[in-house]
């Protein structure tokens, strides 16, 4: 097993390199980079913010008053490129970036005047709150519901819950979020839940119990919106996995020995049926934590990593884009390895060393 872990860790290096390289090449071809955006900003303001670059005011722009604010002098253009590091060839910039990332130096945001690490740490609590609670509640609902549906396959309970799951899956999370706001957050009906933020303004002055209640009070609507369609696929996967296992010979043998149904279900079937469910945990964690909450963060005014990544992409804030991409990709690869190790813990018959051989 140690050899398998070492091989997987070594394979992460070319995987990370390849992902960063592909994204770097794509970004180079995309129009509207930070240099172009800065030039457009200077043109729109007539060069009024020259001090940002340490320049001497409007003297570095075209000296013709009729053209001032519409053209950029070569000297100023070179200064803007140097400011963002675009005075170097693309491959030199890529090699420098990789060297910094290996030391977990993600640089500084182009437009926020803060380091990438500080931005991620600042936004992380919101995304962790949404992602972890959504994942825990999704698995907490989906697995018992999937087992119940498998045991009662074809019954009225199975049909009704299947309809409810499919309807929930068909409703987009952001649309359901808007409906929740209209109904319960001061829209056209009730005003029970807050509309923005993760905690209230007076959160620091609350008691411990008050802080916990206030925290979940703010999370109630966002979590409900993210859960409505999140458990559909996992519920059906759990159900199908259990149905497949229940029909196997070892289950019939266990029942023939006189074991109770719960002993058969949770002592024998559960361990084998959960393998497929656990296989999707790393991907579900990454998707829930860093991507699925983007629209929810926007709708409920929650300033998390999803919103940070979206704003970095639209503003071409490359340090934030690539720094978060590197960190999240590395985390995803480590979680996939963790998922494989959990496989062997649940079912010792799985031997990755033998499979690799």
Under CATH, the homologous superfamily of the largest domain reads MetI-like
Main CATH class of the largest domain: Mainly Alpha
Instruction: Tell me the total number of β-strands.
Output: 0
Look up the CATH topology of the largest domain: MetI-like fold
Instruction: Write down the Rg.
Output: 27 Å
Strand content: under 5%
- The tally of helices reads 16
Largest sheet, strands/sense/barrel: none
What is the domain total for the residues? Answer: 2
Please mark out the parts with pLDDT under 50 across 5 or more consecutive residues, or reply none. Answer: 46-70
Shape: globular
What helical percentage do the residues reach?
over 70%
Overall SS class: mainly alpha
Membrane topology: Multi-pass membrane protein
Transmembrane segments: 9-30, 130-151, 163-195, 215-238, 273-300, 320-346
Organism: Elstera litoralis
Domain ABC transmembrane type-1: 124-343
Question: What is the element layout, followed by pairings?
Answer:
Layout: H1 2-29, H2 34-45, H3 74-83, H4 90-102, H5 116-151, H6 156-170, H7 173-184, H8 208-230, H9 232-246, H10 249-256, H11 261-279, H12 281-290, H13 294-299, H14 305-314, H15 318-346, H16 352-356
Helix pairs in contact: 1-15, 5-8, 5-9, 5-12, 5-15, 6-9, 7-8, 9-11, 10-11, 11-15, 12-15, 14-15
Membrane topology: Multi-pass membrane protein
Subcellular location: Cell membrane
Family: Belongs to the binding-protein-dependent transport system permease family.
